[in-house]
Amino acid sequence: MKITAIRPIFAQGERRTLVFIKVETDQPGLVGWGEATVEGKPRAVAGCVQDMEPMILGFSPLEVEHCWQVLYRSGFWRQGVIGLSALSGIDQALWDIKGKEAGKPIYELLGGKVRDRVRMYTHFGGDTPDAMAESALSKAAKGWDAVKTVPIPITNILDGPRLLDEAEAGLKATREAVGSDVDILLDMHGRVTPQMAIRYAHRFEPYYPFFMEEPVQAENPAAMAQVARATNIPIATGERLFTRWGFREILETGAASLLQPDACHAGGISEVRRIAALAEVYYAGLAPHNPYGPISTAACVHVDFTTPNFVIQEMVDPDDMPLSMTEFVVEPMKVVDGHILPPEKPGLGVEVDEAACARHAPDFGSEAMRNSYQSYLARHRDGGIADS
Description:
Elements: E1 3-12, E2 17-25, E3 31-35, H1 42-56, H2 64-73, H3 81-102, H4 106-109, E4 118-123, H5 129-141, E5 146-149, H6 161-178, E6 183-187, H7 194-204, E7 212-213, H8 221-230, E8 235-237, H9 243-252, E9 258-259, H10 268-281, E10 285-286, H11 294-306, E11 313-314, H12 322-327, E12 329-330, E13 339-340, E14 351-352, H13 354-359, H14 367-372, E15 378-379, E16 385-386
Parallel strand pairs: 4-5, 4-11, 5-6, 6-7, 7-8, 8-9, 9-10
Antiparallel strand pairs: 1-2, 2-3, 4-13, 12-14, 15-16
């Protein structure tokens, strides 16, 4: 069997342009699907997929590791987020083919499952404490027992008590509303400095957050380690890190005890598995980042089922973004009482609906699309550019 084509396919979801990867083979009807969605860079990653295609055309799609090594190591430059996202989507698709050819779900090929179900979490919001509490309660009513929010606004290098008071009030109201049976996860989005992250953490500690994600940017592990040492809230990070090499210093410095590699960015199923194994040496857990589409979710879930140190899996609530999570695939994975049960179909177990993608193809030349890129821009109160 040989790889005959690799194609990126766009689909315009509610909040972002999804990029699916289709790997075709010379075996009739046998194709693999992956996802390589990157916020604000769909055409860039699609172009990289097209550049990578000739590198493994004619290779066996069953030699997943060989293809990974060729795509990662060939050429002088190591890959950044664009190249690794392209590689990640291709890697997922190759595993999908390998599972379909074997007639087994991917997790069976990765050593078999080590758990009976995978715990999931989703997101809640709200601009006021009451709205946050109501949003979290609505998720709990649907069976989610873990929910995540961004509890803080854009924050300056140093800021006064008003923002701290407001952030604490939101978390306090949420905890009082959902009680102790629902875990509350906090995403700081890398918005703050170590000194402000520590101040926020001290306010949040009484409400027992499950973890605090990206209190500072992960590009400086020593700064994140400073926060980790100053709070008893577990620190999570990794959505903006790539490959096992990107996570090494995080573990060595004790910057985080929960790693969040993204199967669409960090190197695909193959590399997230290796990152998880590296984390296990440091007694760190795995909680893959996944705010994207249903192919990304499926790829993460297969890794989760086979990873001893897996903790919890992020996903978008299909009720919040039905177009992105259900329209573009045939029979997406279902969440039952906040968990996903072992997939039974071969490969990923999820197929992209190309006709649906075509119906919702993005218009990159439209004013709405151009304006959407501005949504990633954040500013401080004085007009300065902020981390979003």
